[in-house]
């Protein structure tokens, strides 16, 4: 078996909280147990929301937890030319189309479809705008005019291009057991692969970088499980190897809500300022604390 490669890939658009700590610790511990490598990747394609102090916070918080990682760290903002080149190959294959819709227009087009119009796994209505059907000459003119546009995957064309059925491997780190899961990327509709402000989206960059970095085990939160279906399709389109996946349960706060930056969960740096030790932070993660040989599952 090749040496396992794990990664923790935060977006520096907020302070890390205990949920991030749990995910990072689990990845690092699994790498340690399996004689593997542990990488850190900074997912900073969103120039509006990414901030240097949050990135510095990632390094400080992870070091405080006792983690170390390989250097140099891949920062996605430094790899835009590579993402743009990949996007070009999909364009050349006729699998992308430019979408000029503003957010408000996209919401209106979807609303016009009615309440039953399907939503993607993130809860956003599937794209319902007219851009897919624009004549090539109009597309070219609007692009030449500098009109802002995203690049969407023509899902039906992509599915026809990727030999199916598509599956991904769900890996249980406790037992080592694996099971094949059928990928249903169609649930994402015409997903954005190139943003208006960057020649990539999360989905494209994460797939290209996992492959570039030789990641063999993607261990991330259950909130990203549905995204794996789309990632599997992109791997097939690019002919990339597919890692195995483990989507760990999300930590819940005292009210049973998932910990998230938006819920103002206590940042690790605040815990630190309050005098909490790394050992106590690990203990607060509770069942998730990954001691050698311990289960990564709640006992109850
Ligand atoms: N950057 C993503 C996040 O912070 C995680 C990406 C991944 O693990 O695939 O939610």
Automatic annotation (TrEMBL):
Highest taxon above the source species: Bacteria
Keyword hit for Glycoprotein: no
Signal peptide: none
Gene Ontology molecular-function annotations: ligase activity
SUPFAM superfamilies recorded: Nucleotidylyl transferase
Segments forming domain Glutamyl/glutaminyl-tRNA synthetase class Ib catalytic: 7-280
EC assignment: 6.1.1.-
Keywords from the UniProt entry: Aminoacyl-tRNA synthetase, ATP-binding, Ligase, Metal-binding, Nucleotide-binding, Protein biosynthesis, Zinc
Enzymatic class: ligase
Stored InterPro entries: aa-tRNA-synth_I_CS, Glu/Gln-tRNA-synth, Glu/Gln-tRNA-synth_Ib_cat-dom, GluQ/Sye, Rossmann-like_a/b/a_fold
Pfam families with a match to the protein in the record: tRNA-synt_1c
Family listed: Belongs to the class-I aminoacyl-tRNA synthetase family.
Protein's name in the database: tRNA glutamyl-Q(34) synthetase GluQRS
């Amino acid at each position: 078996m090749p040496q396992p490669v794990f990664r923790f890939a935060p977006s520096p658009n907020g302070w890390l909280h205990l949920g991030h700590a749990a995910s990072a610790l689990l990845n690092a511990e699994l790498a340690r147990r399996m004689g593997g490598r542990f990488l850190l990747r900074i997912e900073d394609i969103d120039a509006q929301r990414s901030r240097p102090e949050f990135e510095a916070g990632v390094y400080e918080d992870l070091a405080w937890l006792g983690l170390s990682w390989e250097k140099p760290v891949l920062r996605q903002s430094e790899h835009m030319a590579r993402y743009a080149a990949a996007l070009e190959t999909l364009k050349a294959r006729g699998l992308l189309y430019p979408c000029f819709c503003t957010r408000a227009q996209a919401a209106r087009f979807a609303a016009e479809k009615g309440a039953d119009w399907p939503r993607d796994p993130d809860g956003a209505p599937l794209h319902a705008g007219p851009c897919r059907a624009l004549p090539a000459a109009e597309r070219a003119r609007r692009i030449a005019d500098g009109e802002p546009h995203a690049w969407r995957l023509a899902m039906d064309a992509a599915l026809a291009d990727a030999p199916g059925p598509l599956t991904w491997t769900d890996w249980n780190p406790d037992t080592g057991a694996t099971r094949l899961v059928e990928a249903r990327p169609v649930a994402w509709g015409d997903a954005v692969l190139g943003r208006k402000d960057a020649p990539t989206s999360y989905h494209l960059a994460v797939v290209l970088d996992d492959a570039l970095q030789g990641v063999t085990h993607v261990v991330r939160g259950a909130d990203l499980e549905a995204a794996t279906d789309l990632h599997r399709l992109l791997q097939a389109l690019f002919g990339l190897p597919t890692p195995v996946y483990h989507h760990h349960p999300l930590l819940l706060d005292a009210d049973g809500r998932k910990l998230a930056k938006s819920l103002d969960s206590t940042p690790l740096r605040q815990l630190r300022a309050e005098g909490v030790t790394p050992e106590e932070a690990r203990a607060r993660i509770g069942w998730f604390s990954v001691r050698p040989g311990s289960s990564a599952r709640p006992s109850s």
